[in-house]
Specification:
By secondary structure, the chain is α/β, with parallel strands linked by helices. The chain has two domains: 2-171, 3-Layer(aba) Sandwich (Rossmann fold), CATH 3.40.50.360; 179-234, Alpha-Beta Plaits. It has helices at residues 10-22, 29-34, 60-67, 90-101, 126-148, 162-177, 194-198, 222-226; strands at residues 2-4, 26-28, 40-43, 47-52, 70-73, 76-83, 104-112, 183-185, 204-207, 210-213, 232-234. The strands form four sheets. A five-stranded parallel β-sheet has the order 2-1-4-6-7, sandwiched between helices. The longest helix has 23 residues, at 126-148. It starts with a strand and ends in a 20-residue tail after the last strand. The relative contact order is 0.17. The mean pLDDT is 97. The protein binds flavin mononucleotide. Flavin mononucleotide is lined by residues 6-11, 52-56, 82-86, 113, 115-117, 219-221, 246. The site of flavin mononucleotide (FMN) has 24 residues, from α1 and β6.
Length: 254
Amino acid sequence: MILCFSGTGNSKFVADALSEKISDKVISINDILKKNRKREFKSEKPFVIVAPVYAWQLPQIINEFIESSSFEGSDKIYFVATMGKDTGNTDKYCKKLCSKIGMIFMGFTGITMPDNYVFAVKMKSKEECEEILRNSLPAIEDTAEKILALEKIKRTDRSILRGLKSGMVNKMFNQYARNDNGFTVSDKCTLCSACVKLCPLNNIKIKNNKITFMHNCTNCYSCIHHCPTQALNIQGHTENNGRYVCPDYKTFEK
Ligand SMILES: Cc1cc2nc3c(=O)[nH]c(=O)nc-3n(C[C@H](O)[C@H](O)[C@H](O)COP(=O)(O)O)c2cc1C
């Protein structure tokens, strides 16, 4: 069973690709969070978590999700993280999480995808993004083969300062930066409610004909990237950085 969380579609792309290759189904963590559904999962095949990396760890909401879920059938979990360029020590924290919940850690891999961190990074052109997506396919294929063979995935890449990034910097990100404080809505907003429908945490509501943020944001930036009129911004950060939405795996020209 593949459990996937995704803000702009990269992790969904990888989950759909894995699903095709290992013939297993994808369950959307976004939907479970949004609809506050039960977190009870049963599968004879190994569980595969697919999610983005936020500040060199899995998003805190995903760590909490895994900890509060029950897994029956298989006792094995693989972790597949999508990233802009560096997952730091995310693998170490996934391993710890597995021992906490009594599951077998089958390994971790990071798949390089277009970086969606629009707060600080300019989005790449459509062509550049498509090239990155095409380049991700062999790594996804390789991961699928290991999962099918029930082989442990060993990580080979190691970035500098990974302990600091996944440790103190991640802690600071979650404590001070992960919020909707600077979010703005310009008069380009048509109240189409795309952001309301997409937000996995139900953090966006329309109140008195105004988009309102409820201060329970995980910073997936799905709202900012999907807004059809680019009316949503983080003041002073995202206005000139473009937007990114990953194409659907099934229709993407490989
Ligand atoms: C809040 C936030 C933090 C991020 N931190 C990292 C990071 O530490 N390292 C990295 O390589 N990419 C980072 N990224 C980029 C995403 O991990 C990457 O683009 C991912 O594939 C997005 O997946 P999604 O489209 O499924 O949401 C970050 C993105 C966001 C929104």
